[in-house]
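Tutorial, part two.
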Amino acid sequence: SRAEEEWATAEEMLQKSGDLKLLGVFLQQRAMIFSLLGDAEEALQGYRQARLLCRRVGDAVGVAVALRGAADVGVARGEVLSAELLFDQADATQVPVVELINRRLGQAGLAIAQGNWERARTRLKEAEVLAGPEAMPILNANVDLRTAQLCMMEGNLKEALVAVDRAIHAYGSVGEFSAMALALRLAGDCSWQTVGEDGASSRYRKAIALQIRMRDPKALMTTLHHAGLFTRWVGDLQRADALEILLDTLEDEVDPPRTQ
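Running the prediction step on this input gives:
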């Protein structure tokens, strides 16, 4: 794709420049994008490359960032033991406040995956205090999104919806549309028993539209699955069947069946 060609060109230019520290930052950013797009394998490969390069140039902070990024991917894949180990390794290095916020948010996500709500709240509070009211909008949006995830797991759907709606607004204001789509999907999930059918449907539709616009098939498949479960739950079986057919078609295009 054009985007992949541009990434490859940028990587080649950085390699030729000899600025290996900047190349490490580039590899981390690319890995983060793959992680947002749901491509765990590419993300892990990118973080691994970044970690090795940062170690080579003596960039301890860069190594810690790559460890935290890989840990986040591990949480998303349900690999909580390896994720915990990676977070512990990252914790051995002092990092700038922005990265420390990202680390605490990641550790909150790990605690949620482990079912440890108290620890998740502690990590979230630490991230919130570090960010403060004057932080970059995306940092507070990330705190709000993680807060919404925790509230939903605890069954506090109204509180979750308030937090995730703040995150949606903040992501939209800074053009972080992949994150905005993920937040909209979560808002749809929170809306089933709070604002009703129209509210949930509206949020799922907006998430689907953004993910089509961003050409994000893996995230789109997850949203279609959630929307399909919702439409079946409310009794709209015809639409649920249509969404299931669309999902099956998309899955075949993203991961085509192997021929014998």
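Residues 40-57 form the longest helix (18 residues). In part three we will examine how such features are distributed along the chain.
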